[in-house]
């Protein structure tokens, strides 16, 4: 005779309604941040698909507004902007130009959607002629001289209306420099979401196509984190919090779920995770070839971020997911 006193977990899986009732983690519109690439161009109709990121585009201001309008209609709460300037120079001056592309895009979006949360990627790599995230001397990125430019960039972005400043450069001390500059300029209530744990990952390749910001020499391994390291991630996160960060980000996402969990368990601040371009491209390629069901695998990956402890998810799939949630 079969015993009947064993655990029967299937009782809570008997129907979709039952499974939803007891579901431990779920993704909502409040968890998601969409990412957009906006280009400074005189062609209002400019919309160019990124070959390595099918379904993602470089957009003029007008086309950005059209895309965001649709996403807001589907429940978009927050977005992050990456800028592609008309010209680049050694010092990345387009990043802290009050009439730069990110500043123009931010003003435009905030004028139409005041409640929409805009995160500004605060870095120089998209604006420098050499493609690195800071001031370069003898083909080496200089840490401290870069801090002043990052601080100027953050203040310019805040003046344009950015709700959250998100430094992604990985220079030592940049959070402290940005916090001091924001406070001095009167932006005491503008929070900083630090790319605290940003690895020198192979998953960034498609982004460099999208933002036209690949390094012209060398790589970024002297300032982004070494992928095998774990304890270093805790030091970076602790340092950024001590300097004034309000939120912490882990980047990339899927290969670093262990880091997301460690950050969540060790710090009580909001934690964000960035499902980066390479993660997007891999899923897209498999889906376009009919090897996986895109919708189900995307939702499963996002729930994985939530289960690991992420509060916010930056994902290029956000627009598609919002349609599913709606």
TrEMBL record:
Its EC number is 4.2.1.24. It comes from the Bacteria. Keywords: Heme biosynthesis, Lyase, Magnesium, Metal-binding, Porphyrin biosynthesis, Zinc. 5-aminolevulinate 1 binds at residues 208, 220. The keyword Lyase applies. The active site is at 198 (schiff-base intermediate with substrate), 251 (schiff-base intermediate with substrate). Belongs to the ALAD family. Homooctamer. This is Delta-aminolevulinic acid dehydratase.
């Amino acid at each position: 005779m079969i015993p009947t006193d064993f655990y029967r977990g299937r009782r809570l899986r008997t129907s979709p309604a039952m499974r939803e009732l007891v579901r431990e983690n779920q993704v909502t519109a409040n968890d998601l941040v969409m990412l957009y690439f906006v280009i400074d161009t005189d062609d209002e109709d400019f919309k160019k698909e990124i070959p390595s990121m099918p379904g993602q585009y470089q957009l003029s201001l007008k086309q950005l507004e059209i895309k965001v309008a649709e996403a807001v209609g589907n429940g978009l709460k927050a977005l992050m902007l990456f800028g592609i300037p008309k010209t680049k120079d050694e010092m990345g001056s387009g990043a802290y130009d009050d009439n730069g592309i990110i500043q123009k895009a931010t003003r435009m979006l905030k004028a139409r959607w005041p409640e929409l949360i805009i995160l500004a990627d605060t870095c120089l790599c998209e604006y420098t002629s050499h493609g690195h995230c800071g001031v370069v001397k003898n083909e080496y990125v200089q840490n401290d001289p870069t801090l002043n430019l990052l601080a100027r960039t953050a203040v310019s972005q805040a003046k344009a209306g950015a709700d959250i400043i998100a430094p992604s450069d990985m220079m030592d001390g940049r959070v402290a420099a940005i916090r001091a500059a924001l406070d001095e300029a009167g932006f005491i209530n503008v929070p900083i979401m630090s790319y605290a744990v940003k690895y020198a990952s192979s998953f960034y390749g498609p982004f460099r196509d999208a933002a036209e910001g690949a390094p012209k020499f060398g790589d970024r391994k002297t300032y982004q984190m070494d992928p095998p390291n774990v304890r270093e991630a805790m030091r970076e996160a602790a340092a950024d919090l001590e300097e004034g960060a309000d939120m912490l980000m882990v980047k990339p996402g899927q290969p670093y779920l262990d880091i997301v969990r460690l950050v969540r368990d060790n710090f009580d601040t909001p934690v964000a995770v960035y499902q980066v371009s390479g993660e997007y491209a891999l899923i897209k390629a498999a889906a376009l070839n009919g090897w996986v069901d895109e919708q189900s695998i995307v939702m499963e990956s996002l729930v994985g971020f939530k289960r690991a402890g992420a509060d916010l998810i930056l994902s290029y799939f956000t627009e598609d997911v919002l349609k599913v949630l709606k």
